[in-house]
Amino acid sequence: MTGGLPLVVTMGEPAGIGGEITLKAWLRRHRLAPPFVVVDDAMRLQRLAASLGLAVPVRSVETTAEAAGIFASALPVLHRPLPVESRPGHPDPVNAPAVVAAIETAVALVQSGAAAGVVTNPIHKKVLYATGFKFPGHTEFLAALAGRGGTPVMMLACPALRVVPVTVHMSLRNAIKALSTEMIVRTTTIVETALRWDFGIAGPRLAVAGLNPHAGEGGEMGGEDVEIVAPAVNALRAHGIDAFGPVPPDTLFSARGRAGYDAAICMYHDQALIPLKTLDFDGGVNVTLGLPLVRTSPDHGTALDIAGSGQASEASLVAALGTAAEIAGRRLTMAA
């Protein structure tokens, strides 16, 4: 599926649930393709496996090729020791540089041809910000590392729904101020291309959500849908993209509504994430579109409140691994 190359999984916030779900994902390895290697502290994962009673042999490796060879019998780890031992539920800023370095290593492995794609465990943004991290999140950092100009696009996907927020990590007040026709057109164009090439959808149909109740009711409930959203839909259609809207958001995510499109373009963060997490909280996947490398992630945070308890579900990470493998495989096929 990926030319024999493994995926590379980053450690994420070591005080969160990333380590636990990675161990549990390896236990489901016979359902996964291809193998994966983890950039993490091998001793940390060994201690965590023992404390949770998970029968996961952890083995340090030097290369991704070595990792692929032992994946069936042990979890391969590119050992990167943490400065201080992590405590579940208690992030330590001292470990923040190691978290960032794990992401950098993962990207470098893909860029060198040693790995098929990156699957990132959740980070704790506040801790990274406190140590000088200058990016809003994973997506923007990965775009900088990949050397790709422009703004990458975040898609959240599960079997029942794909959603894309046009504005992402900002307050609702600022999101409305930032929203523009050009932003909607640019985002939707990237989504349409990705659905064709990365998801194998020959003729993607895209629903564009309205911003206001009833999509503005012809301007009676806010002018943004008439002045910003509708012109974007018209421009997209003029360029041959099968987009329609603005669609009233209160009907867009019903079963009947979802049957009419391949992805929903949403105007702000929660408009996209609430329906997806309601439909499939454990199985959602975060996919970064518009990058020259494959990147997916579980669609959840660090869950510090349950870290170390054994309660974390690996379902979203498993789905992220599967999605990354599928996209990497399609890109290889297209390049052949």
Give a nutshell description of this structure.
The chain is α/β, with parallel strands linked by helices and 336 residues long.
Polypeptide structure, described:
This protein is α/β, with parallel strands linked by helices and 336 residues long. It folds into 2 domains: 1-152 and 292-336, Isopropylmalate Dehydrogenase, CATH 3.40.718.10; 160-279, Isopropylmalate Dehydrogenase (3-Layer(aba) Sandwich). Helix content is 41%, strand content 16%. It contains 13 helices and 12 strands. The protein has helices at residues 18-27, 42-52, 64-70, 96-111, 125-130, 138-146, 172-178, 181-197, 224-238, 249-252, 255-258, 269-279, 315-335; strands at 7-10, 36-40, 58-61, 75-79, 118-119, 153-158, 161-165, 205-209, 242-247, 263-266, 285-289, 295-298. Strands 3-4-2-1-5-12-11-6-7-10-8-9 form a 12-stranded mixed beta sheet, with helices on both faces. Strand 8, helix 9 and strand 9 form a beta-alpha-beta unit. Helix 8 packs across helix 9 (224-238). The radius of gyration is 20 Å and the shape is globular.
Salient structural properties:
Isopropylmalate Dehydrogenase, 336 residues, alpha/beta, 2 domains, 13 helices, twelve-stranded mixed beta sheet
How large is the radius of gyration? 20 Å
Mean pLDDT metric: 93
- Name the beta content range: 15-25%
Classify the helix fraction into a percent range.
40-55%
Would you spell out the secondary-structure blueprint of this structure?
Layout: E1 7-10, H1 18-27, E2 36-40, H2 42-52, E3 58-61, H3 64-70, E4 75-79, H4 96-111, E5 118-119, H5 125-130, H6 138-146, E6 153-158, E7 161-165, H7 172-178, H8 181-197, E8 205-209, H9 224-238, E9 242-247, H10 249-252, H11 255-258, E10 263-266, H12 269-279, E11 285-289, E12 295-298, H13 315-335
Parallel strand pairs: 1-2, 1-5, 2-4, 3-4, 5-12, 7-10, 8-9, 8-10
Antiparallel strand pairs: 6-7, 6-11, 11-12
